[in-house]
């Protein structure tokens, strides 16, 4: 086949349309991947609406991509045609900026995010640097692997690098696309897991996912409820709501951490006194490198952590994208190509 289908957006804020493009050839240090599944992430909306600098149109986005290598570029070693691979938010790094020289590749100042730096995975095939590849474990279906390249690694990595240890009280704010994974990972890490969400309707699901406690933020003072449980060592803030995040700070125990994952432009409302008293801290957490993604998939396969997905064929991408934007998805929309 010399052509492939891609789902592209022709102009900022436009709709997705399926078009044919010439099948790309991988250059040195790159591979071509036959895409089997691609997750739709809320960050894709930032690309579609030109919310990130330098986004070019027509745009092919998609940074939660699972498939198989079908062609190797010159100089690629350690990978073979037919290998099952994932490409996530981390789509390559420059290797020469200060974070890269310090080995902090996820904070690369020239991070190559698929769909931003090069055409992403809303397509039959894509080309990516071999440094971006993660090996998908046997037995993990492509549709379940795909969301782990962004939503999965973000929550997994944030928790495993936090100060929390087995038995500590850890709260997950939000039980949505990120949060439903965060609750599962927190439970599997052995944390005393709290789920925080608005209303009682998500409580049964939160407990099914592994939460031992549930706080309805519309009916209770979240900070007081956390302190009644002993105070949270960590609050993993997955909900993109600055007020909801800020409301958890007084629920942290001494030296507790608020880890911010939910993306929103609104500022947090936190006073210095809230942080100084109790030596509390607030910090943001990015996604993870290719090895972090591989670790996430391996851990998930071993422990049974699974994203809840709705799969739709590539040609229905615009409807699936709108479903994600509306908040109706439960919880990750995944495009499948039939490859």
From TrEMBL:
Residues 13-335 form the Enoyl reductase (ER) domain. The keyword Zinc applies. Its cofactor is Zn(2+). Gene3D superfamilies: Medium-chain alcohol dehydrogenases, catalytic domain, NAD(P)-binding Rossmann-like Domain. Its EC number is 1.1.1.1. Pfam families: ADH_N (PF08240), ADH_zinc_N (PF00107). Belongs to the zinc-containing alcohol dehydrogenase family. PANTHER family: ALCOHOL DEHYDROGENASE 1-RELATED (PTHR42940), ALCOHOL DEHYDROGENASE-LIKE N-TERMINAL DOMAIN-CONTAINING PROTEIN (PTHR42940:SF7). This is alcohol dehydrogenase. The lineage of its organism: Bacteria, Bacillati, Actinomycetota, Actinomycetes, Kitasatosporales.
